[in-house]
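Reopening: Adenylate kinase still failing for me.
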Amino acid sequence: MSGSIVLFGPPGAGKGTQAGRITVLTGKPWVSTGDMLRAAVAAGSELGTEAKGYMDAGLLVPDGIIIGLIVERLQHDDASSGVLLDGYPRTIPQAEALSEVAVVSAVISIEVSDDAIVERIVGRRMDPETGGIYHVSFNPPPPEVSGRLIQREDDNEQTVRNRLSAYHEQTAPLAEWYAQMGLLISINGNASIDEVGMAIEEALSGAL
Ligand code: ADP
Ligand code: ADP
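Support: Ran it again with your exact input. Result attached.
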């Protein structure tokens, strides 16, 4: 498949968890705007400092900041045959900006109910060394890594509620936008990690 693939869905739907499998299947590099923003925050850059307040509050970072970041990333050599976008676009203006610099071949929408989202986010733990994503109950870490796992600052119940509101108000309308273009592939995310991965592989191999 030439062009980029968009991984779409509410926060905590399992986009990052499935991204590794899709990059192996397609060879496309994984581009996560959340990871790029967290790297900017950790580096203390001007962009990171500006983004942090929004991220901590569970609000979307303004389009102007995020569009600049992604347009720059898509100019790198490894993006020439398309990338796997995780967490972008999240607004219609972001999707419009994307369509000017890249061809989107498929949008995989992982659909998960709000109650399950809160449980997934509150139990999420990250491995700062490998980027591995775990869950205290649904994907427990092996004992040798459990000591170094961290919980993201925004992975608490209050912030999650704000992130879900932002998702429903600003991001969910994009599903219809992409459906009208014939690009949306809906995947039931209320299933095990493996089942979701297999459903995505099946849908993509039909589209590849
Ligand atoms: P996103 O990238 O969409 O924000 P993640 O991939 O980080 O979501 O997953 C959020 C949390 O839910 C993680 O703790 C992950 O281990 C867990 N998770 C992911 N997929 C599933 C699933 N199908 N069933 C149960 N838990 C899952
Ligand atoms: P999750 O999938 O768990 O919501 P992400 O790591 O994708 O988390 O994003 C974390 C935060 O970074 C978001 O709550 C938001 O503040 C910001 N962010 C990431 N991607 C975007 C984007 N495309 N547009 C606006 N804000 C973004």
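The chain has one domain: 4-29+76-201. If you still see a failure, please send the error message rather than a screenshot.
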